[in-house]
Description:
Alpha-Beta Plaits; 12 helices; transport; alpha/beta; disordered C terminus
Amino acid sequence: xxxxxxxNDARKRYGPVTALDGVDLTVAEGETVALLxxxxxxxxxxxxxxxxxxxxxxxxxxxxxxxxxxxxxxGRVGVLPQEAGLLDDVRVRELxxxxxxxxxxxxxxxxxxxxxxxxxxxERRVGRLSGGxxxxxxxxxxxxxxPELLVLDEPTAGLDVDGRRALWHEVNSRAGTTVxxxxxxxxxxxxxxxxxxxxxxxxxxxxxxxxxxxxVGGGEIRFDSAAVRGEADLAxxxxxxxxxxxxxxxxTVALRTxxxxxxxxxxxxxxxxxxxxxxxxxxxxxxxxxxTAGPDLVEGAR
Length: 302
Ligand SMILES: Nc1ncnc2c1ncn2[C@@H]1O[C@H](COP(=O)(O)OP(=O)(O)OP(=O)(O)O)[C@@H](O)[C@H]1O
């Protein structure tokens, strides 16, 4: 199968800031891939470099087997950038039609307006739209050329529940490839086949959501206790078998552990006052925090 997007050892520096630190990424045709990472991880930079909109310091990018500029010029890639100004004085229908007219084989205008949920806004002037409505128009512009590859940078920012549902319905019913950056773990979990986790300009995990959760492994034990009071108690908790992390506050303690059974047995032996014990599997949020937390964990996850 051909690749929709490829990055080889992509590096990007802004002066002293290393935004991309040697990223290799391959997205096969037909995949829906979520790019996740904390603020400043390099998600927007990665997408802009992959699209050829930002020159890389070094490395190589291809889209659909072509140099990015060629793929974009041919209308085979639809882009929703994180920040994109829109012409204010035109009507929505005129704007989407003008963008569609730049491509060889655009879908019917009515279909694009419907797919972006803006049929009712078609005669409105762009400058009078709300933030969420403008985001829907940006999505329509990404769809306007009938692209094989959609690249969306935080596509649901500013969208209400209906807008988010409509956008994901459209993304998931398309036959093509979609790569999207998001802060919403639930969106990655629900709509992506695969999650690429970025931290400090590097890919720290890459795989199906379940595999990412399994990377962190184990689970979390929560309990209430008045006996955990100071640093010495925290140190005793950290020393329990399987424990990888400890968080305590307001009489509640959370232990991240690689082996819930062993940790629990030792916990009851070591502490008298342990009440209300809850054991949970790792969710994507915990995996995200663990994998993007610090250099030690990041190295361990690769
Ligand atoms: N034009 C620029 N000049 C200088 N530094 C920049 C520029 N653009 C981005 N950076 C820096 O590069 C790093 C990566 O930024 P980027 O916008 O790619 O991250 P991000 O993961 O998309 O963040 P967010 O989730 O906040 O949108 C950050 O440290 C940012 O401050």
